[in-house]
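Incident log, entry 3
Record: TetR/AcrR family transcriptional regulator (235 residues)
Problem: checksum mismatch between cached and fresh output.
Input:
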Amino acid sequence: MKTDRTATAESNRERIVEAATRLLAEQGREAVSTRAVSAAAGVQAPTIYRLFGDKQGLLDAVAARGFAGHLGEKNALKRTDDPVEDLRTGWNLNLEFGLANPALYTLMHAEPRPGGPSPAAAEALGILAGSVRRIAAAGRLRIDEARAIQLVHAAGGGTTLALIATDEDRRDISVSHLAREAVIAAITTDAPTAPAPGPAGAAVALRALLPGTDVLTAGERGLLAELLDRIAAAG
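Fresh output:
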C-alpha cells in the first residue's frame, strides 16, 4: 500500500513532467527552466531537485514520457503479412509523430544521453529490430540485421529532424518518402531469395531464425547471436 508521502511524490512528479512537457511544446526548449516549471506545476523548486536531481533529470523524464507515448502508438500498429510494408508504416508513423511534436521529438532524438540510450529509447530500437528481423526471416533482407537497423534508425530520425528544422511553407514531405524508399531498396530484396553464398549469407539467415529456437539457454542464444552478427558484418 502506498503511503501518503509516496502518493504525494508521485502526484508531484506527474504534475511536474506534465508542466515541463506543456512548456516544451508551447514555448520550446529554452522555456523549460526550473522556475517556470515549478510555477506551472504549482510546486516549490526544491521539489524538482528532490525528484529529478537536476534540470537534465527532468528533461530525461520528459523524453521518457514522449517515448512511452510513441511506443504506445507503435505497439498498437497491426502487423500485416508484408514485413517490408510494415516497416514503411513504422517510418511514416515516426515522421507524423515528429512533425506533430517537434520540440519533444528533437529532445528525444537530437540530444544524446550520457551512458547510452534511455530504457524507453532502447525499447523503441527493440521494436525496430523486431521489424527488421521479420524481414530477415522472410528472406528479404539484403544486408545483416545490425547494419539495417542502424541505417533505418539514422535515416528515419535524421530525415524527420531535417523536416522539423524546415519552415512549414518550404517543407517537402516527399523527401521523407524518397529517403524511405532509398533505405528500403538498400536493405531489402523484392522477393525472398536464397542466402548469399559463403559464411556471411548463412550467418544472416541463421540469425533471423535464432529467436525461434528453444533448444538453447538464454546465454547460449546470446553468444551465438553475437558470433553470427560478427560473421555477417565481416562479410
